[in-house]
Specification:
Structural class: alpha/beta
Largest sheet: 8 strands, parallel, barrel
Pfam family, one: Bac_luciferase
Radius of gyration: 19 Å
Distance between the termini: 9 Å
Organism: Rhodococcoides kyotonense
GO molecular function: oxidoreductase activity, acting on paired donors, with incorporation or reduction of molecular oxygen
Number of helices: 11
Shape: globular
CATH class of the largest domain: Alpha Beta
Strand order of the largest sheet: 1-2-3-5-8-9-10-12
CATH topology of the largest domain: TIM Barrel
CATH superfamily of the largest domain: Luciferase-like domain
Helix content: 40-55%
Keywords: Oxidoreductase
Protein name: F420-dependent oxidoreductase, MSMEG_4879 family
Number of strands: 12
CATH architecture of the largest domain: Alpha-Beta Barrel
């Protein structure tokens, strides 16, 4: 089993120093990769590059960078720079974002997200594989007049998408290297997400894509405390339609219902169900809700 973990920065002290320390803890626990979500404070791609240089035995990735208010030329410039800096250990995860965040924060309409993702991926693929692009689409233009290749970045930067809806899964299967589903339980993975994305890849004449399942998990004897912390931390997802759908399809009412909380054996068994459902890799999230020591214990219990 391939286990990764999602890391979050702290609000006091030095956020970058702290996340590097967390990454070293993850490496000691036997974890293979660390991932960073894009927020409004730190830059996820930059942070992944720093961690990848400081902890050279870990793969690093973003989970994920929203495409609205960003252009593929600038995102791929960042990504290829980090790919060179980490000697090929970087993975670029992209996201469609959510209407309330895009429109409320950037003042731009959340329109045609799947079409935008498709064009974004077409440009990104061309930049990675050919070193340039000549794209003149409905939503994006990318025709750089100067070289875009970063020496040392190579031509195999993984392009991943946080996709769960049918149209996004189709675009990902046709154009991406993998998907990053979160809060999609084993039933939804096995019956819906995995078949759709792998069929899209096969129909496009491509090999099967990676299915990297992000799973909230806490190993603890204090299940009540873990549940309370999980309910608070995941409440935002209960308001986002794309997450509401996959939570309901799994037979639950709230995001917190999908958090694995319990003994090491119970959490490992829960993780195994995702592999059985078709996940190729698993990334643990929310493991630090009860403190750093519980976080370390959770990582070690699952990774080993």
């Amino acid at each position: 089993m391939t286990i990764g973990v999602a890391l979050n920065t702290v609000d006091t002290g030095n956020a970058v120093d702290d996340v590097v320390e967390q990454a070293r803890d993850a490496s000691t626990a036997g974890v293979g990769s660390v991932w960073f979500g894009q927020r409004f404070d730190y830059d996820a791609i930059t942070l992944a590059g720093i961690v990848g240089r400081e902890v050279p035995d870990l793969k690093v990735g973003t989970s994920a960078v929203p495409i609205f208010a960003r252009h593929p030329l600038t995102v791929l410039s960042q990504a290829q720079t980090v790919q060179a800096a980490t000697q090929g250990r970087f993975q670029l995860g992209l996201a469609l974002g959510a209407p309330q965040l895009v429109e409320g924060s950037f003042g731009i309409p959340y329109e045609r997200p799947v079409e935008l993702a498709r064009e974004f991926l077409q440009v990104a693929r061309s930049l990675v594989e050919t070193g340039t692009a000549d794209h003149h689409g409905e939503l994006l233009t990318a025709a750089p007049k100067y070289p875009t290749t970063v020496a040392g970045a190579g031509t195999d930067l993984p392009l991943l998408v946080a996709a769960m809806g049918p149209r996004a899964l189709r675009a990902s299967g046709e154009l991406a290297d993998g998907i990053l589903p979160f809060l999609a339980g084993p039933r939804v993975l096995e019956n819906s997400i995995v078949p759709q994305v792998q069929k899209a890849a096969a129909d496009a004449g491509r090999p099967p894509v990676r299915v990297i399942a992000f799973i909230a998990a806490i190993v603890t004897d204090d299940v009540d405390a873990g549940r309370a912390a999980a309910e608070e931390a995941t409440s935002l997802y209960d308001t986002i339609p794309s997450y509401q759908r996959v939570i309901a399809d799994e037979g639950h009412e709230r995001a917190a219902d999908l958090v694995l909380i319990g003994s090491a054996a119970e959490v490992r068994a829960g993780v195994q169900r995702y592999y059985d459902a078709g996940a190729t890799e698993v990334v643990l999230t929310q493991s630090g809700l009860l403190g750093r020591e519980t976080q370390r214990e959770t990582w070690a219990a699952v990774a080993r």
